[in-house]
Amino acid sequence: MIDKITDLRERGNEQLSNLNDRERVVKMVLYARESALLEALEFVCRKLENLTKAKWRTLRDLAPENRRENIDDSSA
């Protein structure tokens, strides 16, 4: 997902270079809004990715075969 967002940004930069001044200003304003939204989306995607990784680590740690009590009980 993050790669797609980066591709969209790069394409926007390429499109700006092919316009006259007035069109460029209008597109830059629109692009700035779009860029801010894409940045926010990228931030949210990264946070979700990190939360997902943390959730799986937590679930893995809570799995019966990995729980501390089972290790302590079996050695007693």
What can be said about this structure in brief?
Helix content is about 85%, strand content about 0%. It contains 3 helices and no strands. It has helices at about 1-15, 20-60, 70-75.
Describe the structure.
- By secondary structure, this protein is an all-alpha fold.
- It has one domain (2-75).
- It has three helices and no strands.
- The protein has helices spanning 2-16, 21-62, 68-75.
- It is rod-shaped.
- The relative contact order is 0.09.
Low-confidence stretches: none
Number of helices: 3
Helix content: over 70%
Shape: rod-shaped
Total DSSP E strands? 0
Task: Give average pLDDT, whole number.
Answer: 74
Strand content range? under 5%
Distance between the termini: 49 Å
Largest sheet: none
Order of helices and strands: HHH
Given the helix and strand composition, which structural class is it?
mainly alpha
Q: Radius of gyration from the CA trace?
A: 23 Å
Domain unit count: 1
Question: Which keywords apply here?
Answer:
76 residues, mainly alpha, 3 helices, 86% helix
What's the layout of helices and strands?
Elements: H1 2-16, H2 21-62, H3 68-75
Helix pairs in contact: 1-2
